[in-house]
Amino acid sequence: MGGCGRIRAVGLIATLATLGASQVGSARAAPALPVAKPVAPALRAVPQGAAVRLSALRSDTAYRDTFEREFDSLTPENALKLAALQPRRGQFDFADADELVDYARRNGKAVHGHALVWGLSLPLWLVDHGATDRLGLRLPPIVLPRLPRALGRLVGNTTTLLTGWRRDELLAVMRGHITTVMRHYAGRVAEWDVVNEPLSNDGTLAPTVWQRFIGPDHIELALRAARAADPKAKLFINEYGVEGPGRKLEGLVRLVSALKARGVPLDGVGLQTHTHILGFHDEATLASTMRRLAAMGLQVQVTEIDVGTSLLGATGVGALDRLTRQADAFGAAARACNAVPACSRFTTWGITDRLSWLGAGESALLFDSKLRAKPAYAAVRSAFAPRRPALAPAVQPRRWRWRPGTGARCGWGSCAGLRAGRR
Ligand code: XIL
């Protein structure tokens, strides 16, 4: 552009700017309509939780101290998943999960149980049937004639491998898992994600092993089994990508209303809220989703929030800016939760960036890799009333001493095999 053209362009911009300014000016001059001043909702002391890893609790004092000081409840990040609890069919291993749950109780923290029925984090024995199905090899179930035991087992296993699970067989696995686990923790774990991530992005039921081989009623049957196993526990469906409008949220609303209409026991919905600095929902959108679910008579929780910061689209955005945007995202979710009385817990998916499932590079959590509070921490805390001090420990702490020959495994203030208050 020549010098003359540049001057013309500058002139044009100046004219537009003046125009804009005069429009703003005339808008100001218009008679003001009476606008109701929005009343900020009172701050509620909503319990705040974090997903916790047993290995970090055992080995890292600063991690443990931060959890005990900053959070009211704990969601075991992996220890209550099916692969951890039932590594072999019918054989349960509660050692790690017990250690975590007992630790929480000793420190006056609630436990949010996660997760009983999910299409991921499954042991191989549950998955291989689904693999043949995915390859399109699934044949109609074959009813086997009675055969001598060993031969029967061989033929049965081979057939199951080819045909997938029989509905009644997988139903028994699902019910058995829910019943055994919930009875084991009755009185110690007061709320459960009974079904985790039941939906696909288009709002239809996700093709999990449970959906394929039991069918759409696996959700109802899981919830009924859960209520029967521990009638006092609060039962949740937990889902991601349903925090704002879209086909998946509509699918969730359809699913929940159908369950409610049929009298299926369901107490709440968890909004996982895994998000990032370019795609988070604002406070009003989140609050409206929560109110919609609350109107169906449900509790709502933010169950797994983290806010990724390393997106390609954010190149050029400085680290400080990223942390500010992250604080905006966390703050919006926390304020929405505070504003909706049905929102009963706000849980971050981890404590420190160092151990986030997204990797430290995402800087997705409230505390950095050295456990220093980030701007997002202040944004969340200021959205709620100050936290109440921890409840009195359900189990009195005792000072353990390691005694040779007892078989006790002492780690971070408790010793496996010597724990107090085990049921
Ligand atoms: C993740 C854990 O954080 C990882 O450590 C594990 O390897 C895989 O699962 N939604 C859920 C959580 O419901 O259980 C997932 O947790 C994260 C996504």
Task: Please describe the topology of this protein.
Blueprint (H helix, E strand, L loop, with lengths): L2 H27 L18 E5 L1 H6 L1 H10 L2 E4 L5 H4 L9 H12 L3 E8 L6 H11 L14 H15 L3 H19 L5 E6 L12 H5 L4 H12 L4 E6 L7 H15 L6 E4 L2 E3 L6 H12 L4 E10 L10 H21 L3 E6 L26 H7 L27 E2 L4 E2 L7
Parallel strand pairs: 1-2, 1-9, 2-3, 3-4, 4-5, 5-6, 6-8, 7-8, 8-9
Antiparallel strand pairs: 10-11
Helix pairs in contact: 6-7, 8-10, 12-13, 13-14
The chain binds (3S,4R)-3-hydroxy-2-oxopiperidin-4-yl beta-D-xylopyranoside (XIL).
The site of (3S,4R)-3-hydroxy-2-oxopiperidin-4-yl beta-D-xylopyranoside has 8 residues, from loops.
Task: Please explain how this structure is put together.
42% of the residues lie in helices and 13% in strands. It has helices at residues 3-29, 54-59, 61-70, 82-85, 95-106, 124-134, 149-163, 167-185, 209-213, 218-229, 247-261, 283-294, 319-339, 375-381, and strands at residues 48-52, 73-76, 110-117, 191-196, 234-239, 268-271, 274-276, 299-308, 343-348, 409-410, 415-416. α6 crosses α7 (149-163), α8 (167-185) packs parallel to α10 (218-229) and α12 packs parallel to α13 (319-339). The radius of gyration is 26 Å and the shape is globular. Residues 1-29, 138-143 and 395-423 have low confidence and may be disordered. (3S,4R)-3-hydroxy-2-oxopiperidin-4-yl beta-D-xylopyranoside (XIL) binds next to loops.
